[in-house]
Amino acid sequence: MLTTSTKTKRERSVDVNKIPKMKFVIPKLPFALSLFFSLSLLLVFFFSFPLTSLRRPVSSSSPSVTVANEEIRIRHGYTSYEAYIQHQLNKTQNPKLRKVWTTRDWDRKVRVFSTFFQRLSDRGLISNGSKALSIGARVGQEVAALRLIGVEDSIGLDLVPRPPLVVKGDFHAQPFDAETFDFEFSNVFDHALYPEKFVGEIERTLKPGGVCVIHVSLHGKTDKYSANDLYSVKPLVKLFKRSKVVEVREIDGFGLDTEIVFRKNKD
Asked: pTM, whole model, 2 decimals?
């Protein structure tokens, strides 16, 4: 005869055996979770770092270069400053180009440059008594044009000299004293690896009240020797710390489409 205690134990045993076996299925979550977390991280990244932060950075070797909203972009790739200079010399010293510049191109370019300078003279921005500098003058066409309209005290600056029109020098470090010139002109801003130094040297050597004229390309393509690309006049204007803009106008200047005229502050 079963006791109550024994009977209870047997009933409990029977109850346990009757419980159906359950299969525990672990859902395949790793892929779903990884996808979820990946999308979440991407969203966080894009909201935390706007697209402007993904643009081409200024190289650590050129900390003085000002870049504003990608309206000016420095072309990287030079292993050293000497490599940059050699790259520029490859064009300036090219015998075929120099022959073209001094023969069939000479009269045409002198004529066009003299038209630009005569307009500036008519507006009182340059005079026959001005001491003038052409920056990046190559063989001296701009200097010849200045002298043609009566600005006799004119000289050019380039990596390769061509006396008596052009002296040797680097536009990142002009070989002239402060406040030397009344007028400075350049159509080689796109060749400046350090735009801030390029402009800084202009303002250093320009007399108070002096005029600087820059020709740039905003809409066309520059050549393989260019060291920067400019997409707006705004960053160039910002580089001139001690000058005011006199005029901005469209031109047709041997692939360059914009002329910006600055006047250095007198104080």
From this structure: 0.74
